[in-house]
Specification:
The chain is elongated, with a radius of gyration of 19 Å. It has a 4-stranded antiparallel sheet with strand order 2-1-3-6, with no helix packed on it. Strands 9-8-10-13 form a 4-stranded antiparallel sheet, with no helix packed on it. Strands 5-4-7 form a 3-stranded antiparallel sheet, with no helix packed on it. The relative contact order is 0.14. Helices cover about 0% and strands about 35% of the residues. The protein is mainly beta. A hairpin with a 3-residue loop joins strand 11 (about 175-180) and strand 12 (about 185-190). It is built from no helices and 14 strands. The protein folds into 2 domains: about 5-110, Crystallins (Gamma-B Crystallin, domain 1); about 115-240, Crystallins (Gamma-B Crystallin, domain 1, Sandwich), CATH 2.60.20. The structure holds calcium ion (3 copies). One calcium ion (CA) binds next to strand 8.
């Protein structure tokens, strides 16, 4: 039966593919603040520790909620996998290249209001070094020249720096990065799904590099030019 209340939400994580071996069941009602470090949990059989184990998952959450699996502990600056709810039981028998990675877990409601949207751009791949946080509510016009912004630590200038990103943008909206200032030559689109998304190293899958053509999973990989797209963003705008 479909559920509509996140208080009834749960996720089952399995050590092996196809829902085999040890299982860790996490219920929202018991762990509404998530699990910050899988090293300190006990799986359903009482064994301690489930860090870097998860290889398949089953879950049930209402539409509008997701469970986010993070590669690192404490939810921060980390590759992630979004398990989105639709009310019914859903499953991934094989987490693929996210297998044996999960170290923390948290719950996240979908955002639908563009005024809640934000993007974090990082100077280094892997979400390292200087960070520029851009909130739509504060900068609805974007930035015409990233050389003239201050990063979160107060340092001036972020032109041709961005090498990784984390963002949360409602479905139907996007953040566009441009190779030149004043919104010339768009080269990367951070697509909105309402949930947190990330790109650990430009360019990667889940980024529409050129073209705006959604595919089944919501994203398209299309590398228009040879060479990396790291260290190229000179301006940024929001668009529907
Ligand atoms: Ca495993
Ligand atoms: Ca990990
Ligand atoms: Ca950089």
């Amino acid at each position: 039966m479909a559920i509509t209340d996140i208080a009834d939400g749960w996720v089952e994580l399995y050590d092996d593919k196809n829902f085999k071996d040890r299982r860790l069941t996490v219920r929202y009602a018991q762990h509404y603040n998530g699990i910050p470090d899988f090293k300190s949990v006990r799986s359903d059989d009482g064994k301690r520790g489930f860090g870097d184990k998860t290889s398949s998952a089953r879950w049930q959450m209402p539409a509008g909620w997701a469970c986010i699996l993070y590669e690192d502990a404490h939810f921060k600056n980390s590759r992630l996998l979004v398990l989105a709810g639709n009310g019914e039981v859903a499953e991934r028998p094989n987490l693929g290249d996210f297998s044996d990675k999960t170290s923390s877990l948290n719950w996240e409601p979908l955002i639908t209001d563009i005024n809640e949207a934000w993007v974090e751009l990082y100077d280094d791949k892997g979400f390292g070094d200087r960070r520029l946080t851009v909130r739509y509510a504060e900068h609805p016009g974007g930035f015409a020249d990233l050389k003239r912004v201050r990063t979160d630590d107060g340092t001036m200038g972020f032109g041709d720096k961005a090498s990784s990103a984390i963002w949360r943008i409602p479905s139907g909206w996007r953040c566009v990065l441009y190779r030149h200032d004043h919104f010339q030559d768009p080269f990367m689109v951070l697509d909105g799904t309402g949930f947190r998304r990330e790109s650990k190293n430009f360019p990667v899958e889940h980024l529409t590099v050129t073209g705006f053509h959604p595919i089944e999973d919501g994203f398209e990989i299309e590398f228009g030019t040879a060479g990396g797209v790291s260290d190229q963003a000179s301006s940024l705008s929001w668009t529907t």
